[in-house]
Amino acid sequence: MSHLNLQAAEKSASAFEVKPNKSIKQSNFPYWLVGLILLIALTFALVLSGGNFSDAFYFIREGLTITILTTLAAFSIAMVIGLITSLGRISTNVFARNLATFYVELIRGIPVLVLIFFIALVGVPSLIDGLGKLADSLGAWGAPLRGLRNDSIPMQSRAIIALSITFGAYLSETFRAGIQSVPKGQMEAARSQGLSYGQAMRHIILPQAFRNILPAIGNEFISLLKDSSLVSVLAVRDITQLARLYSGRTFQFRESYLTLSVLYLSITLILSSLVKFTEKRSRRDQH
Amino acid sequence: MTNTNAFQNGNVSPIIKLENVSKTFGAIEAIKNINLEVEAGKVYSILGPSGSGKSTLLRCINYLEEPEQGRVFIDGEELCGNQKLLNRLRTKTAMVFQQFNLYPHMNIRENLTIALRIVKKMDKVQANQIAEAQLAKVGILDKADAYPSQLSGGQQQRAAIARALAMEPEIMLFDEPTSALDPEMIKEVLDVMLLLANEGMTMLVVTHEMGFARAASDQIIFMDAGQVLEQANAETFFTASHNTRVKTFLSQIISRS
């Protein structure tokens, strides 16, 4: 009986097999990518030809350092927050689990732009306020905290704090999915050998989880890079802010925003092809 | 039953002892009131229909499942939630799983040495020596640098046995070690297990391999619906059991094969 079923299954499987042929290869060609590269090339041609586009580009380019630094700093902090939060989410400890879930659901329910306003303009000032009061109540012990004023934390740092808190919550979901993608037997095998929960996590579970979610982490990085444009609302001089300033001053909106868009596009295109490459490689190396 | 008497007379102290152990999953009672004593150097096969609690019993000994009631002793020390004690007692027992559970991101040598280095704090050279000795024993020393996915199922399970042996456990727990294997690979794994049995390793084996159970076991433990229905030496169990449930089980096994 089972033998017959197997034969039937084999037959139906072979019926779905499609032999690769020329037409499929042609239809798989990434015309979209050619289109995007053409768009980038045309814009850079306009920039190189001098004139208004050139002026806009050189003005906006000055913000690249801040855009990249903000993204890298926020992403590093978000990775740490995300990892700790994901461990909390899967913890058996009721307090840790609820605290972590509270944080993630709170952040995920609020738009990034609103979070940036809130954390930079409400969160950080009230924190400084609270620390000041704490310093007063501590007397002599509070001396190191007393110098803290609202203007001693620049907007760029606040922007980084806001993005870290936001993407920490997003990344914790990615980490959690990665940890849960590792079969339960791995933890059991490690524990049965006498490894503690933490040791098993660090040496057995997380390396496998991390490999599984590497592409997803890459995509979160790209999202963060794009969302870093929102920090312009705090007057942080990233490329978006500089494009706003330049267009406001010269009324060359087309030049400013086309250059700005293409700048983001070229960076994210390079990053996403890197992500695709690691995705392919990790699928090939799947041990 | 002779074991129990011997123990009560104070002749032999059991290496594993279970007292009234129960475990439920939701509304299902996986095991009920299990009392069991395991003597050092003997091989016990745990038989019984699917869902009879065999694996749960084994996992309670390793504390992968925490029993709700009752007590489990390893070498006279009681297993409990204390993580330090638990990690120490777990190094005395070693578990071999149905799905092998090798670490896929490490090669076979690293699979064997990771716990030696972390739990036993050995240096790399010493750990590698032990790993290679165990791999030679199960006949896959040439696969030391391969990754688990590059091995056949039989080789993976032998590697898993070597990994368990590397910790120099006093007791080996086998949870259906051949159930996930292709038929032609079952023998190579059973041969390794027979080798261990002949060396005097204390073994608890949950299995459906009646031939192995009969040839290698000192004692057969028969479970049904979460309880131990019969414990007897292998020959008595297979030829002279009076328990009707055992008889039905055996007749079904024979008619199936």
Précis, in short:
The complex is a heterodimer of chains A (287) and B (257). Chain A has 13 helices and no strands.
What key attributes describe this structure?
heterodimer, A: 287 residues, mainly alpha, MetI-like fold, 13 helices, 0% strand, B: 257 residues, alpha/beta, 6-stranded mixed sheet, 4-stranded antiparallel sheet, 24% strand
Describe the model.
Chain A is an all-alpha fold and 287 residues long. Chain A has one domain (52-284): MetI-like fold. Helices cover 81% and strands 0% of the residues of chain A. Chain A contains 13 helices and no strands. Chain A has helices spanning 2-16, 22-27, 31-48, 52-61, 64-89, 94-108, 112-138, 143-146, 155-181, 184-192, 197-227, 239-250, 253-284. Chain A is flat. Chain A starts with a helix and ends with a helix. The model of chain A is unreliable at 6-15 (pLDDT under 50). In chain B, a hairpin with a 2-residue loop joins strand 4 (69-74) and strand 5 (77-78). Chain B has a domain at 102-168. Chain B is built from ten helices and ten strands. Chain B is globular. In chain B, the strands form two sheets. In chain B, strands 6-7-8-3-9-10 form a six-stranded mixed sheet, sandwiched between helices. A four-stranded antiparallel sheet of chain B has the order 2-1-4-5, covered by helices on one side. Residues 1-10 of chain B have low confidence and may be disordered. By secondary structure, chain B is α/β, with parallel strands linked by helices. Classes of the chains: A mainly alpha (287), B alpha/beta (257). The A-B interface holds A 183, 185-186, 188-197, 199, 203-204, 207-208, 211, 286-287 and B 62, 64, 83, 87-88, 90-91, 93-95, 97, 99, 101-105, 114-115, 118-119, 147-150, 163-164, 167.
